[in-house]
């Protein structure tokens, strides 16, 4: 379980009044998903420990949503091309590595993809009320699903029903957009402008779409090409000014690629294209297996928890550097409750925030100096250091008043044990390498 899933876990376990107050301050864009997962956890009785089987409850809804999205891709292809293309397109969507990645992750992106794909099908059926409801649901799961409206415009833009439905979606999304706009700086401030890798990936996607669309059925191309290219392309362009681009925010655009793959392979009668497709399955299988390992994520919350549990004593001070890494322990309250969070001022629940609020720098220094042992949870070596005064106070106090007994590296994190000078040698447990 990585840090984003940990956020889902601890936020969705909050009482509904606390959840509502939190969303008024931060993370409103994921509010409907958190509410859904709150219901899932209440229904299945997952317990309080994600390592004890709760990960099934966290992730199975995303598995189901991905299955629903793959079925939707097949339904669109069946309506536009035929049964053979439907079978291939649905399977192709399920095999795409980014789809598999978010199929087994406790976040909202698989749900958004399912909503957009089925809205596309309803658009083709001219069922405008249902179209507006389903797409609005997707937008409330993540508001960048609204970019699908632009992808649908080339196909349905002349239909009066679509124009009314699109207007209804925009109006229905407005309350969430207004709230999340106030939260945007805190919510997306960690993002930088698109990297060259992002542009290369988009270029590869555009090249593949252009190749597959050449000679394809015109009706399918009018649906699939805008869906594949417009949402990521527009978000990349906007991100040159306002950095908002992350590929998972427009995961649903891969449905357009899968539709084109299904249509082209359905036309194939020669053996060599199928041989080429079969050859691609080997690297896809390796990639698929890798996506199911902790190395595929930035960090591993459960590994951090296990390392802290092995080294901690009841009453030890714990220090998060930076403070947002408190997320590593918040999903394990039975362990977090045995430690003294010396920098914490108000808990996440009390402050209606994701990670709580911290004390002023001078009070952090005082609390640290009074602590015999400190477990510091840090980012991997080489990561940029936060310049904020409270973070500088943590680093300076540890350097001036403590010696480092040991450092343990786990996926995406380091757990460093500090003690007052001379105490490490008297503590065999603390001196463990």
Structural key phrases:
433 residues, two-stranded antiparallel ribbon, five-stranded mixed sheet, alpha/beta, 2 domains
Could you please describe the fold and organization of this structure?
By secondary structure, the chain is α/β, with parallel strands linked by helices. The chain has two domains: 3-293, no CATH class; 301-419, no CATH class. Helix content is 61%, strand content 8%. It has 20 helices and seven strands. The chain has helices spanning 3-12, 16-23, 31-44, 54-80, 83-95, 97-103, 109-124, 128-141, 147-156, 160-188, 196-213, 218-238, 254-267, 272-290, 301-311, 327-330, 333-336, 348-351, 361-369, 389-401, and strands at residues 317-321, 340-341, 344-346, 357-358, 373-378, 403-410, 413-419. The chain has a five-stranded mixed β-sheet with strand order 2-1-5-7-6, sandwiched between helices. A hairpin with a 2-residue loop joins strand 6 (403-410) and strand 7 (413-419). Helix 4 (54-80) runs antiparallel to helix 5 (83-95). The longest helix is centred in the middle third of the chain and has 29 residues, at 160-188.
Number of DSSP-assigned strands: 7
Number of domains: 2
Strand percentage, roughly?
Answer: 5-15%
**End-to-end Cα distance:** 25 Å
**Low-pLDDT stretches:** none
Shape: elongated
Strand order within the widest beta sheet: 2-1-5-7-6
The number of helical runs is 20
Provide the succession of SSEs. HHHHHHHHHHHHHHHEHHEEHEHEHEE
Structural category:
alpha/beta
**Radius of gyration, rounded?**
24 Å
Helix content class: 55-70%
What number is the mean pLDDT? 92
Largest sheet: 5 strands, mixed
